[in-house]
Amino acid sequence: xxxxxxxxxxxxxxxxxSVHPVSLDRVDLxxxxxxxxxxVMTARGAHRSRxxxxxxxxxxxxxxxxxxxGECAALADGTFxxxxxxxxxxxxEERLVxxxxxxxxxxGGRVPSPxxxxxxxxxxxxxxxxxxxxxxxxxxxxxxxEDRSLAEVLSVQxxxxxxxxxxxxxxxxxxxxxxxxxxxxQGFSRVKLKIGPxxxxxxxxxxxxxxxxxxxxxxxxxxxxREDIDHLTGLDRLGLLxxxxxxxxxxxxxxxxxxxxIATPLCLDESIGSPDSARxxxxxxxxxVICIKPARLGGLGATLDLVRSCTDSRTxxxxxxxxxxxxxxxxxxxxAALPGFVWPGDLSPARTYLETDLxxxxxxxREGPGGAGALSVRLPPGTGMGPPPDxxxxxxxGVLRRTFEVATARHSDDTWxx
Length: 418
Prior knowledge:
Elements: H1 9-14, E1 23-42, E2 45-61, E3 64-71, H2 85-106, H3 118-122, H4 128-145, H5 150-153, E4 160-167, H6 173-186, E5 190-194, H7 201-210, E6 215-219, H8 229-233, E7 243-244, H9 252-261, E8 266-268, H10 275-283, E9 289-292, H11 294-297, H12 300-313, E10 317-319, H13 326-336, E11 345-346, E12 364-367, E13 374-378, H14 391-397, E14 398-405
Parallel strand pairs: 4-5, 4-11, 5-6, 6-7, 7-8, 8-9, 9-10
Antiparallel strand pairs: 1-2, 1-14, 2-3, 4-13, 12-13
Helix pairs in contact: 2-4, 6-7, 10-12
């Protein structure tokens, strides 16, 4: 039985780990090679595979075994972030997991709660994606020990969220329009198109003409320069929900200059690496909308900190995606069910872009009169962050990269292959 519900999500987050002491037996680091159904094309290149780094904690509450899983959002290369999957695994192996073991030992063998991992975070301050995976595993471990779910902790367990879809560069434009029409017929009420210099006005106008009622966003992934400001202001006629990250993540001044001239809401994504960076961007007028990606922010604790700030200031939020497996996508859906998230997030089922998922398909339904409304997803069932990764998938596509055995463990845990 967990503590009483807490209204504030950040305060509720600090309650995780307060119910039962959890001992730690071992830590496993996995690498699972997943593949995209179709190459993901962006203005910066193509992604054909999705290697996923996983953290698994094996522990005990008394004599009852419990486990916790965390997923790293790092991609195969550094296209979007300075961390790639190989670097994140190395950071976990060499710095973050040893730091967690040290913190656990100093606590008499008790795993710290996810809100008390400051010492672990300091071991790799420039690796938010790797840290986020470890924090997720610690939270999952404690939640399963407490027989609670993340949705229950955040008081959204009866909720559901509408899903948005992301479409990369598909040529010719007619084929792009056909894909977006197909997504709309499936029930996606919001679609985000990837754009870049030379691929913006024509595809956006074509989709807008074909589906004038569609909630349409454009994501540039930082591919424009200040010389493009006049051109970008021309997008106002399309009534976009927002224009996302037109300039380099470090150039807040360019975003501020564009925001002064464009009526379309300006959203930042790659520029938002912490709650403080988001608050600075909003204060300087560099954006009016924030795309939240928990992994890029450095985990759920930092995410809920930013959600609190933006909710207080009535800044619109929406939940971005990083081509996660269904496990992490379910975690993101839970966060997106919080008040303050005003648009459907990047929450399409992982099986729509991955050949194989780590978990079973989510529960989808049409939310509207007669089941004809927007396509929505119910939050993950069960305890913890959601159903854990499938053993069969791990056995066929995964490699156990490293195991840390805890010297003081009273029991060995052989329920997962080594």
